[in-house]
Design a protein that fits this description.
Helices cover about 55% and strands about 15% of the residues. By secondary structure, it is α/β, with parallel strands linked by helices.
């Protein structure tokens, strides 16, 4: 049974873009957890947060992690907060290689600002220091990954190549 490849990492590190490239090159199915949750709930992640709050989103995320952990051979782009619940990580790593994408705080800041409004945890007017603070708070959680891959200064294709080499 082929293990899943699970991309974790902070918002704006390129999990979805890189994940779909890795999947395409390995001819595997790609699952973006947030998009899958949106499809099932019938609302965007922002709407789920706004209407029902973060707790509801986290519970959908937990169910999704449980469901995907039972499958094999997938490339999964997890939401940045999947690491907050140790049960998610336990489940996903049972049948998955966990790869954490990293980026310099400044790159994250610019990337997330380009897609304003799609990330409910990033309040309007958040500055670089706020991002650095959030990153620091999650640092030890992201460090649990089997591999760490830096994305700063690299194209999604380059990062995908690195990941494919790692898992081979
Ligand atoms: C979150 C990251 C988001 C999304 C939700 C919460 C987080 O996913 O799941 O807004 O807690 O870091 P991306 O990492 O794809 O932006």
């Amino acid at each position: 049974m082929e293990k899943n490849i699970v991309l974790i990492g902070f918002m704006g590190t390129g999990k979805s873009t890189v994940g779909s490239k890795v999947a395409g090159r390995l001819k595997r199915k790609f699952v973006d957890m947030d998009r899958e949750i949106e499809r099932i709930v019938g609302m965007t992640v922002s709407e789920i947060f706004k209407r029902y709050g973060e707790i509801r989103f986290r519970s959908e995320e937990k169910l999704m992690a449980q469901k995907l952990a039972r499958e094999a051979g997938l490339v999964i782009a997890a939401g940045g907060g999947v690491v907050l619940d140790p049960v998610n990580m336990e489940r996903l790593s049972q049948n998955g290689i966990i790869i954490c994408l990293k980026a310099a705080p400044n790159d994250i800041y610019h990337r997330v600002n380009r897609k304003k409004g799609t990330r409910p945890l990033l309040r309007k007017g958040m500055d670089l220091e706020d991002i650095e603070e959030m990153l620091k708070a999650r640092e030890s959680l992201y460090a649990q990954a089997d591999y760490q891959v830096s994305t700063s200064g690299k194209s999604p294709e380059q990062v995908a190549t690195e990941i494919i080499k790692l898992i081979n």
